[in-house]
Amino acid sequence: MKFEQRKDLLGLKELSREEILQILDTAVPMKDIIKRDIKKVPTLRGKAMVTIFYENSTRTRTSFELAGKYLSADTTNLAVSTSSVQKGESLRDTIKTMEMMGFDLMVMRHSMSGTPHYVARNTTMRVINAGDGANEHPTQALLDMYTMREHKGKLDGLKVAIVGDIRHSRVARSNIWGLTKFGCEIRVVGPSTLIPPEIEKMGVKVYYDLDTALDGVDVINVLRIQRERQEVGFFPSLDEYADLYMLRPEHLLRAKDDVLVLHPGPMNRGIEISSEIADGSHALINEQVTNGVAVRMALLFLMMGGAKDEIAI
Ligand code: CP
Questions:
Q1: Model pLDDT for residues 152-209, shown as the tens digit of each residue
Q2: What is the 196 CA–ligand 1 centroid distance (Å)?
Q3: pTM metric for this prediction
Q4: How far is the CA of 142 from the centre of ligand 1 (A)?
Q5: Which ligand 1 atom is at minimum distance from the Cα of 265?
Q6: Where are the domains of the chain?
């Protein structure tokens, strides 16, 4: 199945390895467009997309909007905090209103897992999940995989450690769904309170000691401590978390010499990642941001009809 035959992108769980590779391959010429002086191609002229974020975002929302603009789609953001959602308008009515305005595609983030799936079943617009609760953040995992493949030349068989708040992390789940399709060895590491027991069923190895988990790894993906989702204390204090799990230069000695350090952002410097690492030579955190635009351009291109024509670059 070609990816563009799907109506929606809701998660990496349901995507095949071939579909993931198709998206990553399509993102390569998109990255070339971003590097040009004139970053605009006419490919999606006449198409319209809307971003609706019921949770805060800097990277995902802005990069989707920019990706649409680079491809000449008309892009609009529905600012939830100043919209009629605040007057009590239901999700269903909000979505129908967007559909009736003629949008072709909606990018949605919501705190409740499964909300984009519900929306996708109830609209003719194509829907991209930009993060739903602790379930999935497929475009983040795709840009992470793009970054790994660009630097390592492959995805197959990589050893990847995912560090930190696994319990609340949709980024971790989407990375696991995606990377297991390439036979990667995935290790999750963090305090036991932040590692749900069912995660092992996804085919990952669980570690509680950071040094042991990093032994011989190709990639370290550091997760943000999501203080806003910690309704009960999952660890005694941020200082104690940092003592045990903050990634510092000495930890890299356990990993491969050319280990890549990723972080989805936003970072809590001094809690899950030290500034020496975040600003150091192994970190690809800034490059991930650029790759996020390229991957989102690829998705919009494939989902709004660009794949029917030659890429107009
Ligand atoms: N990584 C990520 O989703 O960042 P934002 O919350 O800023 O979109």
A1: 999 999 999 999 999 999 999 999 999 999 999 999 999 999 999 999 999 999 999 9
A2: 22
A3: 0.96
A4: 13
A5: 1
A6: 3-135+289-310, 138-285
Distance CA 82, CA 294 (A): 30
Q: What is the pLDDT of residues 1-46, one digit of tens each?
A: 899 999 999 999 999 999 999 999 999 999 999 999 999 999 999 9
Domains 3-135+289-310 and 138-285 share a fold: yes
One-letter identity of residue 232: V
SS3 32: helix
Measured by CA distance, the residue closest to atom 3 of ligand 1 is 60
Per DSSP, the residues of 154-170 read: --TT-EEEEES--TT-H
Q: Give the distance (Å) from ligand 1 centre to CA of residue 176.
A: 18
CATH class held by domain 138-285: alpha beta
Residue minimizing CA distance to atom 4 of ligand 1: 59
Specify whether the CB–CB gap between 116 and 126 falls below 8 A: no
CA 141 – ligand 1 centroid, Å: 12
Q: Are 167 and 195 in contact (CB under 8 A)?
A: yes
Which architecture, in CATH terms, is 3-135+289-310? 3-Layer(aba) Sandwich (3.40)
User: CA-to-CA distance for 303 and 6, rounded, in angstroms?
Assistant: 8
* Ligand 1 cavity residues, CB under 6 Å: 57-60, 131, 140, 264-266
Q: How far apart are CA 273 and CA 140, in angstroms?
A: 19
DSSP letters for 190-216: S-GGGS-GGGGGGT-EEES-HHHHTTT
